[in-house]
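Q: For a teaching handout, I want to show students what a protein-ligand complex looks like in token form. Below are the inputs, and the small molecule is coenzyme A. Please produce the holo structure.
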Amino acid sequence: MIAVEKRVVAGMPYEVRPIEPGSDAVIDAVVRMTMETVLTTIPEFEGSAKKAQATFANFTFPAMREMIVADFPKPTHGAAVAEATGGGVVGHVLFSRKIDPIGDLYGYIFSMWVEPEHRRRGVGTALLSAAVDALQTGYVRAETHASNEAFRQLARSLGFSVAERKQVHWPVNVMILAEPSPSAPPAGGGACSRDSV
Ligand SMILES: CC(C)(COP(=O)(O)OP(=O)(O)OC[C@H]1O[C@@H](n2cnc3c(N)ncnc32)[C@H](O)[C@@H]1OP(=O)(O)O)[C@@H](O)C(=O)NCCC(=O)NCCS
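A: Here is the structure, written as tokens, with coenzyme A included.
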């Protein structure tokens, strides 16, 4: 797994840290939050897991858990959680290193979530910047539903911009931090093939 450095959220009672191996309750929370992310950021699903399954066959808790846990040992993948001081997990980010069609290494934000009652306190900023710092890639890419204004604003505040708008099953904003560049560092591992949700 890609190493993530612990960090506190400035002036707030939260810490961002890597996921410890074997922490089942934390992993369950990450799986639940990953599924919540899909259901709440893709309005076409209307909050229905059944509708999500029609597009993502593995959109069940056990299958999503298996997929997420299978990625943990890979040197190309990383994960971090945000915890409230003296409380539980309040957010997560999952990310990986991939190879673009030109052969350059880039970072990819796969999933990110902050529990609604902990939003607008800098937790999302801390999670996304922890992922960007850990990735150490020439550029970082994140894709989200075009209606997701909260993520677009958060990513913009860290220097991302909308590089492309595409229609897949729904309208998607492709957000990029830094320019893709031929001087990006060489690949550090195998390319991933999984598509975004
Ligand atoms: C997007 C998300 C992670 C942001 O988390 P957060 O902890 O609230 O983010 P922050 O507190 O660090 O916000 C940083 C900045 O982003 C922008 N922002 C965050 N939420 C916003 C919103 N709802 N509307 C407009 N701007 C928003 C603001 O500029 C904010 O700074 P401010 O609070 O000083 O105005 C959270 O809303 C979330 O979990 N959404 C659902 C899942 C999701 O969209 N995941 C990402 C796509 S995979």
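A: Two things your students might notice: DSSP finds five helices and eight strands in the chain. The domain at 7-177 is CATH 3.40.630.30 (Aminopeptidase).
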